[in-house]
Amino acid sequence: MTELSTRHSLPRVSRRIASIAESATLAVDAKAKALKAAGRPVIGFGVGEPDFPTPDYIVEAAVEAARQPRFHRYSPAGGLPELKQAIAAKTQRDSGYAIDPAQVLVTNGGKQAVYEAFASLLDPGDEVLVPTPFWTTYPEAIRLAGGVPVEVFAGPEQGYLVSVEQLEAALTPRTKVLLFVSPSNPTGAVYPADAVREIGNWAADQGLWVVTDEIYEHLTYDGVPFTSIASAAPALGDRVVIVNGVAKTYAMTGWRVGWMVGPQDLVKAATNLQSHATSNVANVSQMAALAAVSGPLTAVEEMKTAFDRRRRAMVAGLNAIDGVECPTPHGAFYAYADVRGLLGRSLAGTTPRTSAELATLILEQVEVAVVPGEAFGPSGFLRLSYALGDEDLATGVARLQEFLSGAK
């Protein structure tokens, strides 16, 4: 074989990128939108995206910024100084964690913050403890950064909350990072303050880093408080990284502004990475984010009232289906239903054996889009977002009830 033919036989796409799984939640949403565009009456419970418009005062801040020539130019790769200052103040206010603006990196959405945090922390083979069920992007970001995700599963029997004992059992000499997420996507679980403190202190005792995603911090219900592990476990010192963003709290998914908070040396390294990958976040979006994080939370509370109403309606509707068990989530805007009682039973002449097969069947038969548990860990579960209109939610749940009640 010639040298040229050898080169032609090499993979066209790198193994590193080819090994990454597509975002399951975005894939479900894309399929639902394609069916809607074709005139099908699909109800989409797939993607976690508030159905509300971005509040007017945030939009007006963006419009004003777009008129200013200084925002038509490059800005610092790590973020506008005024936004970094506001994020530092917001972190103190909401997380009880005092930081300097130099500890902030503004990113193109929360996903970039997640990836850059792991890329800056992990060397090949380093392990990350990942409480499971997990958001679909976490393990892919870890693998892309060269790390190894280690799943630690907590089922509905324990409220989808992992214990220190489970984390201890998964610990190895290669463990470097603990991922901690509360409120959780996909389960909506919220860790009590005592559990947050215990897990944080355990991680500190083990010399681990903690990467904590706080993007759902303002979305808790039933009087359940949000507790930041960064402030609950001060023993972690400078080995904690917070990732966050404006997408969920302020209905700004399309504006693409997130951030990473951490020790200055790590943030500087991540900023260097971003300077080569994307440069600065769009200035107009940054100014919109500035208005959001430094403004009132009135609009957030109004949205949360609607989410709470939809949460209760969805949980009640799902639990009325024989074979479905759905714990009441205390945070975010997702219900995580245990559908293991439906698997192996006949539906419309088909017998689904996995939640992926069940989700496909539901979409085909009643045009309701849900995300199967395989996207977040083990099979046997479905995630449904209740961040959609009340009428669509009621219609979608009614379709599920009618279809799934026929399981034999």
Low-confidence parts: none
Helical content class: 40-55%
Please give the radius of gyration in angstroms: 22 Å
Question: Can you count the helices?
Answer: 15
Proportion of β residues? 5-15%
Q: Mean pLDDT, nearest integer?
A: 94
Count all strands and give the number: 12
Multimeric organization: single chain
- Kindly report how far apart the N and C termini lie: 59 Å
Which structural class do the helices and strands define? alpha/beta
Shape: globular
The strand line-up of the biggest sheet is 2-8-7-6-5-3-4
Order of helices and strands: HHHEHHEHEHEHEHEHEEHHHEHEEEH
Biggest sheet, open or closed, and with what strands and sense?
A: 7 strands, mixed
Describe the structure.
There is one protein chain. The longest helix is centred in the C-terminal third of the chain and has 22 residues, at 298-319. The protein is globular and about 60 Å long. The N and C termini lie far apart (59 Å). Strand 6, helix 10 and strand 7 (240-245) form a beta-alpha-beta unit. The strands form three sheets. It has a seven-stranded mixed sheet, with helices on both faces. The chain has a three-stranded antiparallel sheet with strand order 9-12-11. A two-stranded parallel ribbon has the order 1-10. With 408 residues, it is of the alpha/beta class. It has helices spanning 3-8, 15-18, 24-37, 56-66, 81-95, 109-121, 137-144, 164-170, 193-205, 229-232, 264-277, 283-294, 298-319, 355-366, 390-404, and strands at 43-44, 104-107, 127-132, 148-153, 175-181, 209-213, 240-245, 258-261, 334-338, 368-369, 371-372, 381-385. It is built from 15 helices and twelve strands. Helix content is 42%, strand content 13%.
